Amino acid sequence: MGHQDVLNRLTEVFQELSDEDDVVLVDVTTADDVPGWDSVFHVKFIIAIEQAFKVRFAASEINAANNVGELAAMIEGKLTHA
Amino acid sequence: MSNSFLDLPWLPVAPEDFRSRIRSVSPDAQDAGPKIQRLAGYKLSVGQSRSLSKTINALRAANASLAPLSPFRLAVLSNATTDLVADHLPAAAARHGIDLELVLPDYDQVMQEALDPDSHVNAAKPDAVLLAVDYRWLQLERVALTGQAEQIIDQALERIQAVMEGIKAGCGAAVLLQTVPVPSAALFGSYDRAVTGTVRTLIEAVNLRIVKLAKETSSFIVDIAALAERVGTDAWFDPVRYFAFKLAFSPDCDLAYADVVGRVLGSIRGKARKCLVLDLDNTVWGGVIGDDGMEGIKVGQGSPVGEAFLAIQRLALELKGRGIILAVSSKNTDSVAREPFRDHPEMLLREADIAVFQANWLDKPSNLESIARTLNIGIDSLVFLDDNGAERAQVREALPMVGVPELPEDPSLYPWYLLAAGYFEAVSFSEEDSVRASSYAADAFRAEVMQKSRDLGDYLASLDMKITYANFTPTGRQRIAQLVNKSNQFNLTTRRYTEADVKGFEESEKTFTLQVRLEDKFGDFGMIGVIVGQPAEGEDVPTWEIDTWLMSCRVLGRKVEEAMLGKIVAAAQAKGIAKLLGVYIPTAKNSMVKDHYKKLGFTLRSEEADGRAEYLLDVGEFKPQNLPMTVNDQTTELLMA
What we know:
The complex is a heterodimer.
Chain A: H1 3-18, H2 39-53, H3 68-81
Chain B: H1 18-23, H2 32-40, H3 46-61, E1 70-78, H4 83-86, H5 89-95, E2 98-103, H6 110-115, H7 120-123, E3 128-132, H8 149-170, E4 174-178, H9 199-216, E5 220-222, H10 224-231, H11 233-236, H12 239-245, H13 254-268, E6 275-278, H14 289-296, H15 304-321, E7 325-331, H16 334-343, E8 356-360, H17 364-375, E9 382-385, H18 389-398, H19 414-420, H20 431-452, H21 456-462, E10 465-470, H22 477-486, H23 499-507, E11 512-520, E12 523-535, E13 543-551, H24 560-574, E14 579-584, H25 596-599, E15 603-607, E16 613-618, E17 629-633, H26 637-640
Parallel strand pairs in B: 1-2, 1-3, 3-4, 4-5, 6-7, 6-9, 7-8, 10-17, 13-14
Antiparallel strand pairs in B: 10-11, 11-12, 12-13, 14-16, 15-16
Helix pairs in contact in B: 2-5, 3-5, 5-13, 8-9, 22-23
């Protein structure tokens, strides 16, 4: 799965969870850019990502990504090492 | 097919167009409730379950009627993050007949929400509060090896009791208490069980006390310890997600957890199933009786398959022993199908265990309808067990209200599937439950006597009926609450009350309460009628409004309602009451009592467009009838007068 594939899948997971079909996640997107991406949503989103990609984040990784690009890179790393 | 509880494998796979089916449920549709319940009956992914819950919430926001789902407002008090599981509870509750509205306070506000009478939870006036706390909140996470164990156990219970008292004072809601899973952190290994004060021994002691407390306070038990045990505590506890997100358990268990809560809510509202309908060939025995014959079918000790079918029969008998009615629906010739029940030496099930035996060549839905009609129970009270996927699909299509579990290839797993599905979830159990299934068999004999009798009067007189009246009593409380929540057909107002409410009526000076029992020469029906009368306001003379009048359909046509009215009138006269106000509130199921009050001689006072009607009876003008039964009156109104 390439970087853009991961971004696309992340967008799908995001849209399904939030019912915001217009939001498209790109590398520079941060939580602050998206209305409704609060701390509760963040928990749901991380768990939904784990379930969708069948990966697990370590405690140290939960808040490590500064934007969607870094999050996608983290997932890619897990997928290639799986 | 797996038998992992987390997969809910007894549910049929959701159709491809699930999403568009959800979207097609419109708020103004008459059948939004049945549609939602049907969609909730599929095995859902996390995403599908979340979408369905959102749809249910949106329908409620649009004031849509979700009948026949029973509305239930549940507050969840938890020391952990509940937002994830909250996305699944409405869907799971709908599966079990409940239109669930959640009240979710802020994170970790258990004590504050309970004790502050103006809190979010208390102000919301929920029907019930789920106390979803874990061992951390109960302060059982650390070993107590230096003689503090008893104190720590007491303190855990005191915390729970403090919450319960706060809720009782703040909003009077019923409470659902969870048992507490034991984390797999044995400090001493196997020897943990032998050391006083280990986390395991502390939690296990607390669980025993929680169950005792629930019984003493008429609270409900949600056995989360058993859920964690069956899925495995290593799968249940999730330290990473706890530290990161304060999730009390792994989100992979959310759907299973929601279903377990949903089935308890369903049972509280009387939605649990009452009757197990068994297919025969390859469901109760291996092989086809019509082809293989008595010697060919597999049932009995000595072969793995034969023993597997014995296990199914044993489970059916155990269910019967706790009051579940057994019936048979099989595509067979009647005499051929009955032969193993009569003459096969290894069979555990016998003809007398089966209340209704339908062996014919009709389609299964017709047979299921006929079984429900014969037993005088709703079709939604049935569970249908059949190894044949095509038959299951046909029944689900024609009668979506019937519980139809998927079954795996191997009959060894049938009992697991049937029990895991939670159709017969109970919130109480009394001795009366255990004899009820047998008494359905006695009904068959009564029907025979009816055929032999020349007229109804002779028939009723020949039954030697004895009717017993009493006001509500502590011993009757559980059964009264059960009847109040389960009776749908002969129920004038269909008002549902918890055991705590029933206790309130029992203790209220102003309220007239009546529990009625009936027996005849064939057996004891147990409690078959309940009445609650309240002083009516705004009437010109002292009047009792009959808040609740319900009766078991099994005693219809025996003049029991006439007898009950006579009893109400006598009590009313003793209390100086001049009029009785009878109310009929129509539901989808109670049309049989539409003219109940008219038949009893009441006069119609008003009728509304929705069919709700009020009737009056002047107690002075009531003329008692000569009724074909002897009376044992244990009520107190006449004594006090």
